Amino acid sequence: MRKGLISVCLTTLALSATAPVFAEPTQADIDRGKELAYSRKDGNCLACHKMDDGKLTGNIGPELADMKARFPDREMLFKRIWDETQFNPMTVMPPFGRHMILSEQEINRIIDYLYTL
């Protein structure tokens, strides 16, 4: 009995360690992500990054282009937007998630949009 319980626990741990599966975003998800990224009050990505058809873009951060190729691991891009200071303590990029500027869902919508660039 004990051996069976250990086997079930190990199987459960192995299954929970798998990467999350993301559903294919809808056009509405992508549009919402662009709206958040371009908003001067929410994501405000344009303040620092050149991207797509944005107007009055900044040049502090890198251009946001070819994002799926640059960040094939979606979770890594999420972590960078959530708190870039984990990777670069000297960054000027705000920790959008850690400081509750954007929610997890909002960051995911922005990534949905960035993956179209």
Automatic annotation (TrEMBL):
Keywords for the protein's UniProt record, in alphabetical order: Heme, Iron, Metal-binding, Signal
InterPro entries according to UniProt: Cyt_c-like_dom, Cyt_c-like_dom_sf, Thiosulf_SoxX
Presence of keyword Nucleus: no
Source organism, top-level taxon: Bacteria
GO function term, MF aspect, one: electron transfer activity
SUPFAM superfamilies registered for this protein in UniProt: Cytochrome c (SSF46626)
Record-annotated Cytochrome c domain positions: 28-117
Record carries keyword Cell cycle: no
Residues of the signal peptide: 1-23
Pfam families in the record: Cytochrome_CBB3
Alphabetized NCBIfam families for the sequence: thiosulf_SoxX (TIGR04485)
Protein name: Sulfur-oxidizing protein SoxX
Species of provenance: Marinobacter pelagius
Lineage: Bacteria, Pseudomonadati, Pseudomonadota, Gammaproteobacteria, Pseudomonadales
